[in-house]
Amino acid sequence: DVVMTQSPLSLPVTLGQPASISCRSSQSLVHSDGNTYLNWFQQRPGQSPRRLIYKVSNRDSGVPDRFSGSGSGTDFTLKISRVEAEDVGVYYCMQGTHWPLTFGGGTKVEIK
Amino acid sequence: QITLKESGPTLVKPTQTLTLTCTFSGFSLSTSGVGVGWIRQPPGKALEWLALIYWHDDKRYSPSLKSRLTITKDTSKNQVVLTMTNMDPVDTATYYCAHWVQGTKTVDYWGQGTLVTVSS
Hints:
The structure holds two protein chains of two kinds.
Chain A lengths: L3 E4 L2 E4 L5 E7 L12 E6 L6 E5 L3 E2 L7 E6 L2 E6 L8 E7 L6 E2 L3 E5 L1
Parallel strand pairs in A: 2-11
Antiparallel strand pairs in A: 1-3, 3-8, 4-5, 4-9, 5-6, 7-8, 9-10, 9-11
Chain B lengths: L2 E5 L3 E2 L5 E8 L8 E8 L6 E7 L4 E3 L7 E6 L4 E6 L8 E9 L4 E5 L3 E5 L2
Parallel strand pairs in B: 2-11
Antiparallel strand pairs in B: 1-3, 3-8, 4-5, 4-9, 5-6, 7-8, 9-10, 9-11
């Protein structure tokens, strides 16, 4: 199985400041079709996960542009340019390139 | 508008079989490129993929749980059913179903989830 390792586990951030979450995979996420199927999900307290980013850097409709995804191969990053109170929650990366599909362990974003 | 909703028992006993139903609207499982997946989340823990069924009825299972899982679809009822045999307390989790898009190889819309507790 592809292991997805996120860091940090916990990320205290001051409102208005940037935040960055790392996700590393145990093998390349480049699919045989040339695409890289790396996604980011946000799970607010008590809610279902919500997809933010798909295929590394494509933002979903309705997702604020302060969220951005980048990376390639085995190394990926989710950035929040200016953290707002509504961004509190747990963020998960997920790979769709290899079966079984796997999630990272999650990064908890909280306000300092 | 795509919506999904999970239903099933909230409490099962060890060794029993769990049957969960995902009832959805806003898409058809007969449409090419579409699927429905099941994901679970133990309390306070991370997400775990369980199973996926595609529009053409191909099925994928988590290797670690494959012997215990069965996923089926009823296209006419817009439902997907997941059964998990020999339930154990470690299977206590919130179970989610979600809409799968083959083109992006991921899920986009999720159900609200249903908490299943395994206890005698």
